[in-house]
Design brief:
Length: about 90
């Protein structure tokens, strides 16, 4: 990547998720060297939901809360979708 900002990282992560390469998306998220944005959290929580990674999803949601994105409606919806997939209600 020529420009390594949150937009380029999120684009790559989102592309991996759309291609159903969930492990690669998570690995890329863990390598990010910039603060994620709302779109990043939505994409990566989707990957966690598809893989059934409950603990990782909880950790990422906690990071979202720390970054003040955890209360954004789209992030809350992504968390609810993950909880539904995990039968964690």
């Amino acid at each position: 990547m020529l420009v390594r900002d949150v937009v380029s990282w999120t684009g790559l992560i989102s592309g991996y998720v759309k291609a159903r390469l969930f492990n690669e998306a998570i690995a890329l998220f863990l390598r990010m060297d910039v603060e994620p944005n709302v779109a990043t959290f939505v994409s990566i929580l989707g990957a966690c939901g598809k893989l059934g990674c409950l603990n990782l999803g909880k950790g990422i949601h906690g990071l979202g809360l720390k970054c003040l994105f955890g209360k954004e409606l789209v992030v809350c919806n992504a968390v609810l979708e993950c909880l539904y997939r995990w039968n964690a209600f």
